[in-house]
């Protein structure tokens, strides 16, 4: 199951690409599970406590979302905190985030949120996508050539992430950037 939130479409694009990479022969439960997309939008975000998800033992649960100021979006963390997830503790949870350049310590925040639910966080990954963050002075969208290069690199990066997920990779394979702790804990 791929649970995703997308603000501008970058994370939706990565979620769909990841679905293609993780889907295999339809006769295996694991590949059938990976083919399920669950979008976090509208009522699902407004009323996460009303949502009921169910995982089978060993099912892949991949959380895909953008990075907002070097952390997971508040609404994603709120969803993790409040959703009813039957057998969530039996699933294999992974994080795939999109960012313009780096994620700071966002993977640590995701791991904490997943761990508070008594779920087991495994691998965390970042995918650089065209920058859409313009809320702080000094930040702007990428020039067309930089955006195009990031989009061209995305399929290969997602394929590598899918391979790592299949192998139950349990560490972080992310671009932290400089001053990661400061960005995720003070700027955020």
Task: Give Rg in angstroms.
Answer: 16 Å
Which residue ranges are poorly predicted, with pLDDT under 50 across at least 5 consecutive positions? none
Q: Kindly state the mean pLDDT as a whole number?
A: 89
What is the β-strand count? 8
Major sheet: 6 strands, parallel
Shape: globular
| N-to-C order of helices and strands | EHHEHEEHEEHEHEH
Distance between the termini: 29 Å
Helical content (DSSP H or I, runs of 4+): 25-40%
Number of helices: 7
Strand order of the largest sheet: 2-1-4-6-7-8
Topology:
Blueprint: E1 2-4, H1 10-22, H2 29-34, E2 37-39, H3 43-46, E3 52-54, E4 60-66, H4 74-82, E5 84-86, E6 92-99, H5 106-116, E7 121-128, H6 144-166, E8 172-173, H7 180-187
Parallel strand pairs: 1-2, 1-4, 3-5, 4-6, 6-7, 7-8
Helix pairs in contact: 1-6
Explain the overall architecture.
The model has no long low-confidence stretch (mean pLDDT 89). Helix 1 (10-22) packs parallel to helix 6. The chain is an alpha/beta fold and 188 residues long. The relative contact order is 0.17. It contains 7 helices and 8 strands, in the order E-H-H-E-H-E-E-H-E-E-H-E-H-E-H.
Question: Which features would summarize this protein structure in a list?
Answer:
188 residues, six-stranded parallel β-sheet, 7 helices, alpha/beta, two-stranded parallel sheet
